[in-house]
Amino acid sequence: MTSFARNLLALSVLVALSACGLFGDKEKELEPAELIDFQTKVSIKKLWSAKLGDDAEFLRVALRPVGDGNRIYAASFDGNVLAFNPESGKQAWRNKLDIELSSGPGVGGDLVVVVAVDGYVIALSASDGAERWRSYIGGESLATPLVLDEFVVIQTVDNSLRALSIFDGTERWSMEQSTPTLTIRGTTSPVQVGQNIVSGFDNGRLIAVELTSGDIQWESMLSPPTGRSDLDRLADIDGDLAVVGQDVYASGYQGRVAALASESGQILWARELSTYEGVTADWNNIYATLDNGELVALNRRTGAEIWRQNALLRREPTVPVSFRTTVVVGDLDGYLHFFNNVDGEPVARVRAGKHAIVGTPIVVADRLYVQSDDGKVSAWIVQEPRQDKRRAPDTANEEA
């Protein structure tokens, strides 16, 4: 069965179950939660926004901005790849590829890499956007390409991990995992941990692969499939992985959120929580969005629950991302929601647009970058309150 057929089957089953009322007898119980009123405590300001291309509504592609410290890069479903000045939003270059894109960009080694719906990996110059090479990998990818050293690492929806040469796109190594009969549409984005690449797969396994050789260093069964039906046995590891120091944090659908030792894959702690969005981390906490829309913060070292926020039930929030003293998520109506990272209470809300925000927002330096399904990218900052210089304390006099 093709990946498209599996995804179509999964969608059909879920729609059928919903129609039968197995998820609730009242239609209202299935509707997105209404937005609550609260006192705004953090001022959020839009720096700039730009149109990338046509919208990708309902397609669930993996397009989101990325930064390299000098520029912000973004791509649209209809094949536009752009570079922006991160402060002003001024366009540095644009390449119209005239091909539908499913994931990216990834950036590194003076390359900007995107993946097309029909299985082509395309590398552009980060300096001027000129195409460097194009390589066919034979499968769709919904994961951000990882550009590292002399390699471009791509994970595809058919449970394959491939490393291409950064110089010409030729394949250096590949590895595959078994694919269950039924899967969720999505793919883990590989991450670097030392000299290894770590990624998750639809069979519930997290695997570390040595970058230069492609040799498997360790495997860990994060989400063992359970149950009799294919639906019950869904155990996909999709979405974002997080790495802090020597620890890897991952999550699985109908499974667990867990911390693993990067050198061995040993599970350090695990919590029974179900999410297909993945996790993010800061120095203190792990953040996850559960499959019902609840937001959860866990202690990074112990896995103990710090707080849980249910204000966005069924609003399809993205993974929470740490931003200054807040964590932020986007939702299906284009809102950005900001919560206090200590207790999870709402502190701000702004609207980036009228279309859904599906991709995880990113933070580069002190700015937040968001891409919405209508093909727009925007930049946001926390606006600090102005100090009244007339009331500013005279430090010298106070010390005296």
What's the structural blueprint in terms of helices and strands?
Blueprint (H helix, E strand, L loop, with lengths): L2 H17 L24 E8 L10 E2 L2 E2 L4 E4 L4 E5 L6 E6 L4 E8 L2 E6 L3 E6 L5 E6 L9 E3 L2 E5 L4 E6 L5 E6 L14 E3 L2 E5 L4 E6 L5 E6 L20 E3 L2 E5 L5 E5 L5 E5 L7 E3 L3 E5 L5 E5 L5 E5 L11 E3 L2 E5 L4 E6 L5 E6 L10 E3 L2 E6 L3 E7 L12 H5 L1
Parallel strand pairs: 2-7
Antiparallel strand pairs: 1-33, 3-4, 4-5, 5-6, 7-8, 8-9, 9-10, 11-12, 12-13, 13-14, 15-16, 16-17, 17-18, 19-20, 20-21, 21-22, 23-24, 24-25, 25-26, 27-28, 28-29, 29-30, 31-32, 32-33
Quick overview of this protein structure:
With 400 residues, the chain is mainly beta. It has helices spanning 3-19, 395-399; strands at 44-51, 62-63, 66-67, 72-75, 80-84, 91-96, 101-108, 111-116, 120-125, 131-136, 146-148, 151-155, 160-165, 171-176, 191-193, 196-200, 205-210, 216-221, 242-244, 247-251, 257-261, 267-271, 279-281, 285-289, 295-299, 305-309, 321-323, 326-330, 335-340, 346-351, 362-364, 367-372, 376-382.
